[in-house]
Amino acid sequence: MTTKIEEVYKDLCSKGNPLYFDTYAVVKSRLEKSYFPFLRDVQPFRTDHGMGHVNRILEKLSHFLGPHLPVSGNTEGRIVDLENLNLLMNAALWHDLGNLYGRLDHAQSISKIFGNVSTFLYDPPHRELILKIAQGHCGEGSIERTIEDESKVIYDSVIYPQFLSALLRISDEIDEDQRRVETRVMSKVPKECEAYWRFCSCNESIMPIYQDDSLGNVNLEIKVMCKMPKEAVYAKWGKNSNEVICINEYVSRLSKMNKERMYCNKFLRQYSALYFRNIDRINAEIHFYDEKDSTADKIVFSFSDSSTEADFFGDKTIMEILKKYQ
Prior knowledge:
The protein is of the alpha+beta class. The chain has 2 domains: 4-173, Orthogonal Bundle (Hypothetical protein af1432); 181-323, no CATH class. Helix content is 46%, strand content 17%. The protein is built from 13 helices and 8 strands. It has helices spanning 4-16, 18-34, 37-42, 51-64, 82-94, 110-121, 124-135, 142-146, 161-173, 194-202, 246-268, 309-314, 316-323, and strands spanning 152-154, 157-159, 203-212, 218-229, 236-239, 242-245, 279-289, 295-303. A 4-stranded mixed β-sheet has the order 3-4-7-8. Strands 1-2 form a two-stranded antiparallel ribbon. Strands 5-6 form a two-stranded antiparallel ribbon. Helix 6 packs antiparallel against helix 7.
């Protein structure tokens, strides 16, 4: 699988530094064959953290940066700087490898494997930044705690490591659709892992979307398309040692995603004048379907800076719909 952003990266490398892409391709191939297969063995029934997950993150990055990637015959003001892109692409490869040492503090554990090989792979200015950008992908306040510099210069290019880490982090956060789990083995998923799998299985897609409004302004949002069996709305899902109600847990997960959006926005705005825009909201469209696979009801709700789970369940129209399934 080759994503749009990999095609652009390869092209920029061919014009700037071919060794960058050669190294990236070798690392990606080696991790896919020799390391990622062990993640499922170490943590059985975790949702996918392997190369499929990495490729979907790259897909999300392609959409987030889409308006700023080069297009044929019009590259003015649209080229994402090679040095920044090189750091981002490599950090995406490494960000979840710490799971080989267990889920707890897995972002910090990346250094255990990265430190053994980075000397042979990356130029000195790149090693520390690739690691830090990857380590900032999870944990409260981890971006500013891990990365002190808002910008720095490498090889005459201005690097924005906090921005890059935030971009990786939000792309990682929204990889929560049906492709993240294997539905054919759903019946074998342990009860304590059920909620994580069920949440993903409900989501047909979660993607960044650029939209033009009536005034010609461009807005960036995250669009969630959910398809939930109506009999499952108030079903109970196992989560760790507890049980949760499907619709409550689903909305709670969307709320968590929205909090990540707001946190990452603090750092994404640093770059907005050059390449990026604020992620305005998360728009969720939840379809409840019947035994004939037809939509029985639909809920549309926007999670913004001011909206919470309480707002969702306090909406009269939404509550009237949900009462049908209690």
